[in-house]
Design a protein that fits this description.
This protein is mainly α. It folds into 2 domains: 3-135, no CATH class; 144-417, no CATH class. The chain is 81% helix and 0% strand. It contains 16 helices and no strands. Helix 10 (235-260) packs antiparallel against helix 11 (265-287) and helix 12 (307-331) packs parallel to helix 14 (355-362). The chain is elongated and about 80 Å long.
């Protein structure tokens, strides 16, 4: 390489060490002068030293380069050990950071400096978020950790080994396709659960309802209806929270269907947008009389990522996907819509994830209608749930919202087909 390029690579190695050193120095900024073991200058020199070792590599060979790197590692380990003893503090973070700085400095010269710089930024970000990461781990429950591990196992371990072909004589069940859809919806539900954990419920019932709609609009409906019966929060606020959950749930399911079958964008997007606008308009009418609750909303949403719930969803999805093909072949569009209406009450996500097969089996318009029927059935079921749990106190407002959403969506779809 030329002199200019070599200088640029050495500058990158120095910059990596400087960046990590700034973060290390900032973490110990409260210490007395001279008490810091390794700060900006030390880490900048470590990065530059790694870059210089990389520069010498073509001249001294692999063995000598390895011995220099080993010597640096041993010296840095001894230095950090003595510092740890002096401070009576056990931590390997600074040791690992120093070794990584040396390695990135060498890689900036011998490999790709852009990659080395990017990794240096990531390392600095990880080091800088120490308090946040420690707080996150402290708040993490075993159920949440287990759910994340299960999601990774489903994605990385189980999915690659499943056969990507139909395994039944009727050509209906593709294990990898079904499991991939299950992983996608499980990941979406878990992401919604995390969003609820981050947002919390202290910002009001509307925000809590919208965040809860990412996980389960049924849970929001159940929770708010229970509060309406017990009169623990203003009724208008509870209705607004349910409306927010229904809208977010509608949009979420629509996005899933469009991702699976992008050609449904207009046929689904416009009716859902109309239904959401209608619900928003009704919500604004109720919001005129809404007052913020004095107490924190008691929105109870459990972790949606339970193993048996995942298996239940996979089973429902397989039945729906198989039913789409069988009922369409035997009964045409009528059978397809009947299946969507029933599945919408049980699990409308399964219908959305079957959008690709719906398009292939029945065409665009019938596929879009099937998804819309499932959503309408879902809203009708949520209305019945809210009306029953609230002891009749939310019958009128929820009926107005449900009728407005279904009418707006159906009307828009009918106009589009003309």
């Amino acid at each position: 390489m030329g002199t200019i390029e070599l200088l640029q690579r050495l500058a990158t190695a120095l910059a990596i060490g400087f960046l990590i050193g700034v973060e290390r120095g900032w973490q110990e900024r409260q210490g007395a002068p001279g008490s810091r073991a390794a700060g900006v200058r030390t880490f900048a020199l470590v990065g530059l030293f790694g870059g210089l070792c990389g520069t010498l590599y073509p001249l001294i060979g692999e063995f000598a380069f390895g011995m220099i790197a080993l010597g640096f590692a041993i010296g840095f380990v001894v230095f950090q050990w003595r510092q740890s003893v002096a401070r009576n503090n056990v931590s390997a973070t600074e040791l690992v950071a120093g070794l990584l700085t040396f390695a990135l400095g060498a890689y900036a010269v011998l490999g790709q400096p852009i990659v080395a710089g990017a990794v240096g930024v990531v390392i600095t970000a990880i080091l800088a978020t120490r308090e946040w990461l420690h707080g996150f781990v402290a708040r993490l429950t075993w159920v949440e950790l287990r759910s994340a591990i299960l999601l990774l196992a489903m994605s990385v371990v189980v999915l690659p080994v499943l056969p990507d072909r139909n395994i039944d004589p009727w050509g209906v069940f593709n294990p990898r396709e079904i499991w991939l859809m299950t992983v996608l919806i499980a990941a979406a539900s878990f992401a919604g659960y995390v969003a609820v954990k981050v947002v919390g419920t202290k910002r009001g019932l509307i925000v809590a309802g919208a965040a809860g709609g990412l996980v389960s609009s049924a849970a929001v409906t159940l929770s708010n209806a229970s509060q309406a019966k017990a009169e623990t929060a203003p009724r208008a606020s509870l209705v607004s929270g349910i409306i927010a959950a229904w809208i977010v749930s509608y949009v979420r399911v629509t996005i899933i269907a469009i991702v699976v079958a992008p050609q449904l964008l207009l046929l689904l997007g416009l009716p859902i947008a109309a239904a959401s606008l209608a619900a928003t308009a009704v919500g604004l009418l109720f919001d005129r009389n809404r007052q913020r609750a004095d107490t924190e909303p008691r929105l109870s949403i459990k972790n949606p990522f339970e193993f048996f719930r995942v298996l239940r969803f996979a089973t429902i999805l397989a039945v729906v996907m198989g039913g789409v093909k069988v009922l369409t072949a035997r009964f045409g569009e009528a059978g397809l819509l009947s299946l969507s209406a029933v599945a919408g009450v049980v699990e409308r996500d399964a219908v959305a994830l079957s959008a690709g097969r719906l398009v292939a089996a029945a065409g665009l318009s019938s596929a879009a209608l099937a998804v819309l029927v499932a959503l309408a059935s879902d809203v009708a079921g949520k209305f019945a749930l809210g009306a029953a749990i609230s002891g009749g106190k939310l019958v009128k407002p929820l009926l107005i919202v449900a009728v407005a959403m279904i009418a707006a969506g159906a009307g828009t779809y009918a106009i589009m087909l003309r």
